[in-house]
Amino acid sequence: MENSIEKVSVIISKGSLEGIYPGLILANGARAEGIEANLFFTFFGLDAINKKRHGHIKLSTVGNPGLHLATWLGGLPGATSLMTAYMEKTMAAADIPPIPDFIEMIADTGAGLYGCKASVDLFKLTKDDLITQVDEIITVGEFYEKAAGGQIIFT
């Protein structure tokens, strides 16, 4: 096919369930279709690959229009934990794996996982703070080199 996509590079910049999963789903779908995929984790998206945080990602409840809740309701004590648990249960019923398992699965398909050097430096992290599936910490310029010739998707 003339206009087929052969490579995608997905940028994950948000550290919430609804900020991380779309990028993982797109990368996983690309790999399932035989499309080369790279994931670039920047700013709060680094939480998805941070050893201490990736198993504790929460759903953003305050000001999240997709929840169809009043903003004040999302700010009540326990609302975030309750809605996160509900969403995780719903996703498990739909066979969508938890973030750590999903990232491992995507990495096992050969997708590249990269941390943003500027963000890693900003948050005073090192490669040792990141999960083992992360290939490298790279600059934005290096990301563009890896993305060259493909589609860039920002989630």
Q: Can you walk me through this structure?
A:
- This protein has a single domain (9-154), classed as DsrEFH-like (Hypothetical Protein Ychn, Chain: A).
- A five-stranded parallel sheet has the order 4-3-2-1-5, with helices on both faces.
- The chain has helices at 17-32, 71-74, 79-93, 99-108, 117-122, 140-147; strands at 7-12, 36-41, 112-116, 136-138, 151-154.
- The chain starts with 6 loop residues before the first strand and ends with a strand.
- The model has no long low-confidence stretch (mean pLDDT 95).
- With 155 residues, the protein is of the alpha/beta class.
Write the layout of secondary structure elements.
Blueprint lengths: L6 E6 L4 H16 L3 E6 L29 H4 L4 H15 L5 H10 L3 E5 H6 L13 E3 L1 H8 L3 E4 L1
Parallel strand pairs: 1-2, 1-5, 2-3, 3-4
Helix pairs in contact: 1-4
Counting DSSP E segments of at least 2 residues, the number of strands comes to: 5
Structural class: alpha/beta
What's the N-to-C terminus distance? Answer: 26 Å
- Please give the CATH architecture: 3-Layer(aba) Sandwich
Number of domains: 1
Largest sheet: 5 strands, parallel
What is the CATH top level name?
Alpha Beta
